[in-house]
Amino acid sequence: MSKLYMIPISIVENDPSALGGSTIDIIHHTTHFIVERARTARRFIKSTAPPYTIDSLKIYEMDKNNPGVHLSLMRQLLQDGHDVGIMSESGSPGIADPGALYTAEAHKHGYTVSPLSGPSSILLALMGSGLNGQNFAFNGYLPIKDKPLIDELKKVEKKIHRSGQTQIFIETPYRNDRLVQIMMKHLSPQLKLCIASEINAAQECIKTKTISEWKKENLKIGKLNTVFLLG
User: Taking the complete model, does pTM exceed 0.85, yes or no?
Assistant: First the structure.
């Protein structure tokens, strides 16, 4: 029976070393892919030295305004006996990206879903943070405007004090330093903040300190891909 494979790709561009051999084998035996970004997928598949030409693949890109646009196509491909691979733009699909839509649709229609092992910046950040890994939540992007952002950070802090739950979120890189400044100003000094930047890359940096400790530094993240964790 055909399967829906949730295929991770590297966090570091075009570096398949973080994937196991079995994951790469499945990539090499799959010819139909539904992906978050076609260009990224093609480059990554090429980096795994596949036994076929990239042009021979069927790669369908999700529409960012309608990410579920290929749900019916996926069902038809599976019905026709084709395995289908879902790929995120970075890391593991189904975690903080539209891949979950396709997983849910496959379950709804009785198709087998097979998640493959590979990197996720969110989980790697949690692993490296030293914060509570037994109880955590991923919040995606926080509000952009100042007041809603501050209000949401206050809610997040209350959750931490109430349950000890680690709160994880991300930000568009050019707003990293603005977010840090707001956290420094409005969060309790004893709260712990982990800043995990460029995970798996040569410039990887993961540090956890209290807000009061961070305030003593002239902290500038810049436009780095970063995961933030509070606990």
Answer: yes
